[in-house]
């Protein structure tokens, strides 16, 4: 489950209740059907779970508190006939798409409403895209990419990694990172990186052997525009999937008497 801080039993109940009794009609309808406190409700509002209401997040936060201040849990699900949803007159409270993206990073570990590339300070997107790599065999390319996962492999020379990324067009590609380059240019957590490397195409499948890479900075969190000490806190929540291998390096050929010659 990706959503942080929301109890798993609540998530299961939300789905079960919807399957048994139909879609939620409003925020008020949801509160009447699901036992949830203001903290859990705020989490769902911040990930835009109530966008079907047509209300902004700021409006929903106000409405949630107005409903819960007089709500009696013992009356939940006791109404035989649903009362019409109360209309609250609220000012239009605007939010930027970047505020929504940082809500998602904080709660999910990655943005979903916009591309992570839209959060970069730079507008540079690389010299090549994943679709170009088959034509770049033995060539050096620069690519801007978002890290999806990396696989650790132990070797005699030290650790190496295989990486999986997406480019600014949302296409996947793979990389190889050997010990030498990793010592100077290590991974620095989830996010977008500028990669420099040579393309190798084997069996019609391209891989970039990375020689240099740098993690690229995202914009400051606009939710904390007046609090400098919090403007880059959410950035630390960006997830990366790391698969570690806990074994000794495989032996080299000469260590196990290879190569062996065919018998004549």
TrEMBL record:
Residues 4-60 form the DNA polymerase helix-hairpin-helix motif domain. InterPro entries: DNAPol_HHH. It holds the Pfam family HHH_6. It comes from the Bacteria. This is DNA polymerase helix-hairpin-helix motif domain-containing protein. It comes from Flavobacterium collinsii.
């Amino acid at each position: 489950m990706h959503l942080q801080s929301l109890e798993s039993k609540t998530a299961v109940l939300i789905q079960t209740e919807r399957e048994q009794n139909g879609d939620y009609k409003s925020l008020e309808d949801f509160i009447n059907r699901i036992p949830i406190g203001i903290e859990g409700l705020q989490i769902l509002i911040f990930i835009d779970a109530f966008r079907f209401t047509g209300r902004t997040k700021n409006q929903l936060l106000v409405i949630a508190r107005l409903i819960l201040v007089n709500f009696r849990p013992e009356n939940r699900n006791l109404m035989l006939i649903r009362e019409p949803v109360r209309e609250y007159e609220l000012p239009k409270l605007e939010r930027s798409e970047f505020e929504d993206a940082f809500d998602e990073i904080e709660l999910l570990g990655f943005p979903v409403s916009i591309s992570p590339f839209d959060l970069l300070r730079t507008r540079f997107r690389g010299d090549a895209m994943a679709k170009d790599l088959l034509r770049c065999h033995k060539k050096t390319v620069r690519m801007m990419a978002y890290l999806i996962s990396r696989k650790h492999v132990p070797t005699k020379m030290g650790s190496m990694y295989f990486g999986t990324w997406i480019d600014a067009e949302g296409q996947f590609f793979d990389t190889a990172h050997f010990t030498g380059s990793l010592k100077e240019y290590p991974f620095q957590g989830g996010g977008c990186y500028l990669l420099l490397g040579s393309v190798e195409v084997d069996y019609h499948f391209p891989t970039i052997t990375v020689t240099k890479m740098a993690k690229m900075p995202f914009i400051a969190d606009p939710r904390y525009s007046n609090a400098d000490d919090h403007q880059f806190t959410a950035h630390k929540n960006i997830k990366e999937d790391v698969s570690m291998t806990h074994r000794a390096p495989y032996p080299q050929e000469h260590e196990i008497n290879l190569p062996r010659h065919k018998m004549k």
